[in-house]
Amino acid sequence: MSLSKKIILQLLKEKAADKSKLNDVKRLLSSSFQKSPPSNMELFKSYRNLLQKKKIKASPGLEKLLKTREIRTLSGVAIITVLTKPYPCPGKCVYCPSDSRMPKSYLPKEPAAARGLALKFNPYKQVAKRIEMLQLNGHNTDKIELIVKGGTWSSYPKKYREWFIGRCFEAANNSPLRRRGAGGDLIMAQKINETAKNRIIGLTLELRPDSVMPEEVAHLRKLGCTRIEMGVQTIDDKILKLIRRGHNTKQVAEATALLRNAGFKVDYHLMPGLPGVSPKKDLENFKEIFKNPAYRPDMIKIYPCSVIPQTPLHSWWKKGQYKPISTKALIDLIIKMKLLVPRYVRISRIIRDIPGDDIACGNVVTNLRELIKQKMKKQGLKCKCIRCREIGHQFKKTRKQKNKKTKLFIDKYKTLGGDEYFISIEDAKRETIFAFARLRLPEITPPNPPLHKGGNIGLPEIKGAGLIRELHTYGHLVPVEKRLKGASQHLGFGKTLMKEAEKIARKNGFKKMAVISGIGVRAYYRKLGYGLSGTYMVKNI
User: Fold this and answer.
1) SS3 of 230, please?
2) What share of the chain is helix, strand, coil (3-state, %, to 5)?
3) pLDDT band at 454, cuts 50/70/90?
């Protein structure tokens, strides 16, 4: 019997429940075999092998113990990031690096970018490889959040975009299809994915604010997109012009409203420390983002400005025309930002994965989020953002809160073109969030002047409907149709939130509800009485 299998059997026999016990067993048996201790990945592979041969029974506790990079699925989904091929970008941003091997703004040493480059940006291979690696590390991949990064998405040929997304779905389905022409394989692959083992329940694409047009929004829905990451950077028109961003704040506001009225989740990329901006001004702009109904995004990513060689900004820095914000000032600024974030917002990321040797000047601290968390804890400060309150990230509190009663909360706020309702299930003190829904009730009478031509964005199936833009239950990812002891998924939270959302919509005069459902979640909404209409799940209420 192999060393790995021997360790698995011993761990099961001793009912190992913590990493110290795991390491003790690994060391003891490895020394008797006169070998180096196997990795957790090797152990998990042996565990699965024994399970398939029915020599052992499933042990959720041991699976959790062997799982590596557990944070990858703590938010309830397995996140897979893929990159598009290099392609000309219309942007001329002064801080943006250009490497001929990569799509604009990406560097070959960034983790996801390195994988994309190694696999020649083949979408099928990128998704298949990530699924394989996540599974080998002990993660379930039943529910996948697919994130597509690269150059400006809307500048790629439409045929390439449809082919790329279609191949991603085929990889999740583990069933490559024959080429049927533009769009043919995409639709077939999406249909298969509705009941596949690895379902894509969310698709995120990156867009510039000036590329968000009604026809683009309709095409995003054809692809199955549910969330947009938008490069906003700042809401100061003078600075946007200085950095040659190519769009203005009016376009940011209009794009945000247009996307919301089509049901999309909107994630802003924000860049503190830009040329011409002081920390004080950065904080003022940040306040305005959540004070002004024209903005108020659902999520944000904070990517501090860094000086990358072979960019115009690098020349400015060399000439003394630009000085980056110091790490200490940056930490203090982000802490102040976090204290301003409303409960309905999720801070997805702080800093990009740019290796330090690719940064000429600027922040090179890779664990900035952890340092900020430690400093806030020492000062007795708490961030109210969704990520900081997710049950999956409340490691020490989970056991204590598991048996506490949950309560339903409703936060209403105004936005351009409609009202938003953040409906959440949390503990009484609102320190831990278990699940939430985002309901949008668009204005019956469009703004005057209209935000865009066409009025209904070319999506008649959602005209006059209340919109569920997001429904999310947090905690360890639980496979579809299953329950795990102590996990917060599949406990009926979703149904409770949907009923409350329908009740609010009816009360406000809406007669139907539309959900911007990910392809892999359509079966769930069918159980709640929804049916497919166009690219949305719709129900008369």
Assistant:
1) strand
2) 40, 20, 40
3) very low
CATH classification (class only), 226-385: alpha beta
Q: Evaluate whether 65 touches 26 at the Cβ level (below 8 Å).
A: no
Q: What is the DSSP letter of 310?
A: S
In this structure, are residues 261 and 457 in contact, taking their beta carbons and an 8 Å threshold? yes
Residue 139, burial from CB neighbour count under 10 angstroms (0-12, 13-18, 19+): buried
SS3 assignment for 64-104? HHHCCCHHHHCCCCEEEEEECCCCCCCCCCCCCCCCCCCCC
DSSP string of 417-436? TEEEEEEEEEETTSS-EEEE
Integer CA distances (angstroms), 301 to 205, 230, 334, 502, 510, in order: 14, 10, 11, 31, 33
* CB atoms inside a 10 Å sphere around CB 366: 12
Give yes or no for a contact between 535 and 458, defined as CB atoms under 8 angstroms apart: no
The CATH fold of domain 391-540: Aminopeptidase (3.40.630)
pLDDT of residue 448: 53
Give tens-digit pLDDT for 291-348. Answer: 999 999 999 999 999 999 999 999 999 999 999 999 999 999 999 999 999 999 999 9
**What's the chain's average pLDDT?**
88
Residue 9's alpha-carbon distances to 51, 135, 136, in angstroms, are 11, 20, 19
CA distance linking residue 72 with residue 115, whole number of Å: 17
SS3 category, 59: coil
C-beta atoms surrounding 365 within 10 Å: 15
Strands 299-302 and 265-270: parallel
Q: Among candidates 168, 194, 145, which has minimal Cα distance to 472?
A: 145
So where are the chain's domains?
3-66, 70-207, 226-385, 391-540
What DSSP state is assigned to residue 321? S
- What is residue 421's predicted lDDT score, i.e. its pLDDT? 98
CB neighbours (10 Å) of residue 93? 20
* CA quadruple 166, 137, 149, 113: dihedral, nearest 10: -120
Q: Residue 40 contacts by C-beta under 8 Å, 6 or more apart in sequence? A: 66, 67, 68, 137, 138
Lookup result for tokens 């993660």 = 139
Cβ 311 vs Cβ 358: under 8 Å: no
**Maximal C-alpha separation, the chain:** 78
